[in-house]
Every structure is written in C-alpha cells, then in structure tokens.
What we know:
- The protein is built from 13 helices and 20 strands.
- The protein has about 400 residues and is an alpha/beta fold.
- The strands form 6 sheets. Strands 2, 3, 6, 7, 8, 11, 14 and 15 form an 8-stranded mixed β-sheet that branches.
- A hairpin with a 5-residue loop joins strand 19 (about 385) and strand 20.
- Helix 2 runs antiparallel to helix 3 (about 50-55).
Amino acid sequence: MKKENNVIKKKESKGQNPIASFLWINKRQRAKNIYFLLTIFVVIMAVGIGYVSSKLDIINYDDKKETSVSGDANKIYEEEEFEIMQAIDSASSYNDFIYKWANNGGELRKSKNVINVLLLGLDSEDALEKGGRSDTILLASLNKKTKKIYLTSFFRDTWTYMNIGGEDRYNKINSAYFYGGDEALIDTFEKNYKIDVDYYCAVDFSSFTDIINALGGITVEVQQYEAEYINRTTVHTIDYGPAVKLNGWEALVFARIRKSDSDSDVSRTRRQRLVISAFIESAKGASLSQLNNALDKLFKYVKTDLTKMQILGYAAQALSGGWMDYEIEQVNLSDPEIFCTGYVGNSAVVFVDFPMVAEKVQKAIYGDSNVVNTEDRVKPFSLLRARSDGQMLLA
Length: 395
C-alpha cells in the first residue's frame, strides 16, 4: 500500500472542456505534432471533417493498430497518484549521474486531462525515410483543466544517456533519432525528463518554407541584433521590431540561427517557440485556399503514430471544446541553475541538471511534480571540470 507522504495525491477538478479520452487512449502509442494537430483543428472549424478526411491520406503513417477516440470530451478527470521520485544521491561522474537518473525506474508523470505531443523537426532531406537528426525537439502539452497549451523546447545539443538496441550510448539527444528513429528518441526523452509522451510527429524541414509561404508568412518579434546578424551572414534582409512579417525562407533562417547569441541553443529554442506560435496564429487567420495549399505541402512531409481515425476523433473534440482558443504559454528552460554549456572533446554540448528540469517541466504542465530535489542531493555540475576559459568539460 502506498504511504501518504510518498505519493502525489489525487485531486478533483471540475470544469468543462474537451480533451478527455484524448490522452488516455493508447498510452503506449506516443507523440504527435503541434503543426499538424493545430492546423487540422483550424481546418475542421472552417470546412468540416469530410474535407479533412481526404487530406489525411497524404500523411506518412506508422504501421500502428487503428484505434478510434472515445469518451466525454467535456469531462475533467480526477488525477492519479504518482510515487515520489528522489534525485540521485551518489555518482562517480557526470555520465554516471545521467545513467543512474535515466535508469532509476521512476514513474512517468501523466494525466488524463493532458495530452503530450512531441514535435520533431528533422534536419535532412528525406529524413522521414532515411533518418536524420532531430534539429527541433519540442513538447506541446494541451491541458484542458487550465485551458492552456504549453510549449517546451529542449536543447538539441543536450548531452545525454541513451540505450539504442540494447547498447548504452552517450551523445547529444538529437542523435537518438539518427541511431534508432522515433522509438529511440521518445524512450530517451521519457527516461530523462520523466514525462509520458502520448504521440509523436516528425516533420521534415524540407517542408518548412513552403508551408509558411502557403499561409502568407508569419509575424514575429525580431531583435535588432538578430536582424543585423541575419543581414550580415545570409542573403536575406529583414527588419527588426515587435511585429516583423517573415516569408518562409526568412522564418527558417530566423528559427535556426545559433551563433548570434552567447547562449547559443537557449535563444535558438526561444526563436523556435516564437515561430511555432506565429505559425498557429497565421493558420487561424488563413483563408480556405491558403489552408488547402498549406495542408497539401505539409502532410507529405509528416510522419506520425496517430491513426487517421484518431486524428478525426481528436479534431472533433477540439472543435467542440474550443481548443484553438486556449492560451499558448512557453515554458522557459534557460535558467542558468539547470543547464550549462561546455564541450565533450571538440563538440559543443549542453549539460543539464535532469532532475531539476524534470521537476520544473512537470510543475509547468501539471501543476505539481513527483520529482523531489533535496539540498543534499548530488549536484551534477559539480561532477564536471572547468576549462581555463570557464567552459565545462566531462571530468
């Protein structure tokens, strides 16, 4: 029997809104894509399920069992109990620390009121078929209790432990997809961040510029230094200010620049979240012809473990529940207390305090966490050594 002080207790919530069975259907099937999910919902609102159904045939589906969506879209579910997970109390090295954390057997946080969608942006042409590194790793979490969509960007250069085909590896997290595809990346993500992923969706970056152009561009805030860097280092010329209109190529350059910032991947993930939020807003205001064009360009570059029936079921729930009106909130992981930059050999990496990040992200998405970080726990950065210029290295 679970002791009271060793569990996150159940909470009752009342309210209305429609994701209900959304997340709990097929908890072993994982992840889904925010571009794909939210664009479909917009089209459903505009033109109806029959039109969308024909478009969905374009998508690249994993060979999964066809499962429909059921349940009350307006029901708020009671929260489950989760056993408390303690941080690591001993480690001989940073690699030993992240190995022990990934393999501690801690219970993954999840909720029937939340659906977690892992969006993977792949960086090589034909990456859906041939593999590639996940240049973007973004968790989109739709919470019907708070009526918010939480966007959390994870550093692609995070130095992490992963198990690929039974073999232990240490590498940047974006290489997990290259070595083992979506299953390897999701397994690595879940073990390190202790969050259950419901569906995945991989999008080849080859589609990025065409989709944004089909929607008439996006509007984002561009800092002066970002515009100056792009204008100096690329063939593009853009303005800066609180509302700058970017076409597809400009948006891609904006989302992917790294060397304009001293914090590298931190500002890069911030720009990616801005672009995705702007994409959603652009889709909301697009005409039917623009949406039709965008869907044709998008879906052939999408791979997901959602089935067509699930997509249609969730889209219907989204329509009845007004998910497109949910506030979008960005979860910021740029706190210097939870990460530091450094090198492994000649490769620039990001070292992460995984227990701290897991606790922070869980609290942002669910309002609580089953991860406990005590004062006497092992601080992972103490297991690194500082180079003469201050950069951290594996000890």
